[in-house]
Amino acid sequence: MMIVKMYPELFEQVTSSASEIDYKTSFIPIQRNISNYLFVGASITYLSFDPIETKTLIDSTFGVSSTVYNRAVGGRTLDELELYIDTILSDYTETEMIVFVHIGGNNVSAESPFSDLTETRKDELRASIDNIINSIKTKGYIPVLSDISFRTNHYDSEELSAKPFNDYIWKPKILEHCKEFAYEDGTSVFSFYNFTYNNPTVVNGYDYTHPTDNGASLIIKRFVDTVCYQNYLGIKPDRLDKMKPFNYFKLSKFKVSFGSDDILPHLDTENINLIGEIGTTTLISTDNYDMGVQSSIDLYYVTGSGAVTGNNSGFLLDTQLRHNVYFSPTQTLTLTLSGLSNYQRFKFRTSGRKEGATQLRETNVTINGYTKSYVCIESDGTPNVDDGVEFTNIAPTNGEITVVYTCKSGDYGYVGGFDLMREI
Predict the structure, then answer these.
(1) What phi, psi does 200 have (nearest 5°)?
(2) Is residue 406 within 8 Å of residue 371, measured between CB atoms?
(3) Which helix (H) or strand (E) holds 284?
(4) Phi first, then psi: what are they for 246, rounded to 5°?
(5) How far is residue 128's CA from residue 41's CA, in Å, rounded to a whole number?
(6) What sign does the dihedral 217-218-222-225 (CA atoms) show?
(7) Exposure letters 363-390 (e unless 16+ CB within 10 A, then b)
(8) Tens-place pLDDT, residues 6-32
(9) Other C-beta atoms within 10 Å of 205: how many?
């Protein structure tokens, strides 16, 4: 008896067999219990599905002993996979196997959009898909044709991306050949386009196409939660619809603490459900809830008087620089921002000012192992309203960003406030 570790409440034997339901003509999922997997495609497939990591997650999730092969080749086009698919398949003697096909990204180009394709070329692409899938079925294996993934620099120009290729070629072919692993509109249960559209940071920022290391792990989990889920449980996974582009973030909690000391009560805000738009910071002030939505967080605990410009021309807004949280060289101030999405990346800006002192009062700020510092007071003793630190491309860990403040020298450190912005 198979042991399903992640979905025990859903694990029931399904009486339908592969011979009773034609996977080509029916959307009904079948509990196939196949544990051999072959991935074919180009560089995205090659980089996404590490055989060892994929096998490990499949086995630990469903209590099986799977075999995973990855025969994807970087740069390969749909036409080239058509030429090599029979050779690839001839290397395997397993009697049953699921063959996952993600191919076509190298046939997509903003310089040669779908609208420029001739009808002859569109028919050639359709015929190549037919030949690939038919080769897999002739071998006696189960094909799972994926839609083409989304390139995350195409939010404003989807018609230049894979979308029309999916809509007019891939989805109809998924419906023709692989209904079992699809929804009624032709979207694959894997939903690679929607998944990468909704979660842009699974791919890297230099070409907007290939997965990061963490992104590859998330893609593997997506495969396990969809294709493997249906394969082992005989239940079609919930549909993943395309969301609006991520143009907001949610901050559900933030707190400030001094080392092991008690958390400052009025700075430990639970379930505040703060919303910030891309490129802006619209967060609720912690020291005056009646102010509603404003553009910053003002830390207001011990009023070591700050310094303002009178016209918001400093590194932060005057409301952020008017007060300070200060701490001694023996203390560590920790700011924890919680409830964020691991898929998003953030910019964090912070500063502090001190009026009426002569020391520089330098303050260190550390995020994810990187430390920067700002000076609270100019060398002539006037408040330094222009200095602060900025961190970009911050990746949350388990939905949190942790910011650690310490004194750079023997003087006190000061924090006036911070900005949090979503970058992607």
Answers:
(1) -65, -25
(2) no
(3) strand 283-284
(4) -65, 100
(5) 13
(6) positive
(7) bbbbbeeeeebbbbbeeeeebbbebbbe
(8) 433 333 333 333 333 344 446 788 899
(9) 14
Tokens read off for 168: 């007019």
Pick from 49, 95, 26, 58: which is nearest to 229 by CA? 58
**For residue 297, what pLDDT is reported?**
42
Token pair for 150: 């989304």
CB atoms within 10 A of CB 31: 20
Domain annotation for the chain: domains and CATH numbers: 8-233 (3.40.50.1110), 248-422 (2.60.120)
The one-letter code for the residue type at 138 is T
Can you say how many angstroms the Cα of residue 273 is from the centroid of all Cα atoms in its chain? 20
Q: Which of 46-55, 68-77, 241-250, 325-334 has the lowest mean pLDDT?
A: 241-250
What pTM, to 2 d.p., does this model score? 0.58
Close Cβ partners of 4 (under 8 Å, ≥ 6 residues apart): 10, 11, 61, 62, 63, 232, 233
Please report the DSSP string for 98-117 in residue order.
EEEEE--GGG--SSS-GGG-
